[in-house]
Amino acid sequence: MLNGKVYVVTSIDLVNAVNRNSKALALNPFIAIIGKRITGHDEATSQIVQHNLNGENGPGYVTDIHDATISSLAPGKALEDMTKAMLLEASVYLYRLKHNDVIELFAWTKHMVTMCSTRAIYGPSNPFNKFEGRLVEAFWEFDRNLNTLLVNLAPGLFAPRGEHARSVLGHAFQKYFEQYKPEEAGSAKLTEERQSTNTKYGLNFWNQGRLEVGVLLGILANTIPAVFYTLIHVFSDPSLLHDIREEIETTSLQDTAGETVRHLKVLTMRDKCVLLQSTFQETLRVHALGSSSRYVREDVLLQDQYLLKKGMVVQMPVSVMHSDPFSWGDDVKYFQPRRFLKVPSSTKGSKTNAAAYRPFGGGASLCPGRHFVTLETMALTASLVLRFDMAPVEGDWRIPTQKQESMATNVFPPEEDIRVKIRERQGYQGVNWGFVMT
Fold first, then answer.
1. 375-411: burial string, b at 16+ Cβ within 10 Å, e else
2. What is the pLDDT of residues 272-283, one digit of tens each?
């Protein structure tokens, strides 16, 4: 499957044609084959995963997991509960930041988001809580070695550190699921549904732990660089920073008479802070550099012109579509935070193209986690800009270049970190901050 011809599709019309042929040009075979190389689960589990991949003959493991994930992460109470749990944990990290603290911004973001996201998803018994430093480092060691693991050639020999990190993570989550009781776990609906599906299909705890390593990639690997680059773009542009603060303060803050606590209204912020959301969208346009893949399950003729043969692979590089001047205009190479505002392009000065915007994929394989990562990034960015000023310790702001560490991720991490000094905002010292899910 991974050794044949590769069709590279960059035309927006052809990408849409690929999306319309989701049965013949499918993502699920990649989930089955590459998933085993990512997580290292055993052959019996691989057979369960590969059975009835596309649901033609009733339910199957992959279709059940997919449906449960979509329902768990759709806008609604389950998503709001998960976001609330994440922000409660994040509040601890934000209160630890003190005036004149110096931090490595990516390292701090990486640790904070890893701990807060996993706490929200796995509950108080989150394995990262028990083995904090060890598991955080294990995950990122695993991520750094993922390309070599995907080759699947004697991983213990050619990627020993990645193989060891994967085993450490798998073992930690094996122990988590051995003791998991849905009614007591305090975990997100996402975890409850996955564990229920794993049990339904007879997966043992060892394999449940291994499969969860793959879930961690979806939770963390793209989100953390996305948060990092959003923060850099906002704090490095004084005019943008001023306007985003003003937008949040006029639409999404709740002050109660007689109280000293100012509350961020999280759901209001999601709907009303259009500049903040546009900035996040533009961050993904500029920094999402991965590729979407499909497996050709049967011969397909696209637009009566291009024949795709059964057994081959389709690749749709996001960076090419996100950097096309025809789709985005002459300023395509520049970061334009107002690009996605819903106003006439003559007013905002930049062009958009919804069909060419694919940081979360498209069609039937649109990422189900997009609502959570959007809400998470916006809320964390809002919380930081309300409380702090931030500036590089040395020199001016710069946007770090990215390095590809994994073919399985879309938003790559920076080549190097940037040291910044944190200062409490002038006039806001002593303010207590909170949030409400309204």
1. bbbbbbbbbbbbbbbbebeeeeeeebebeebbebbbb
2. 999 999 999 999
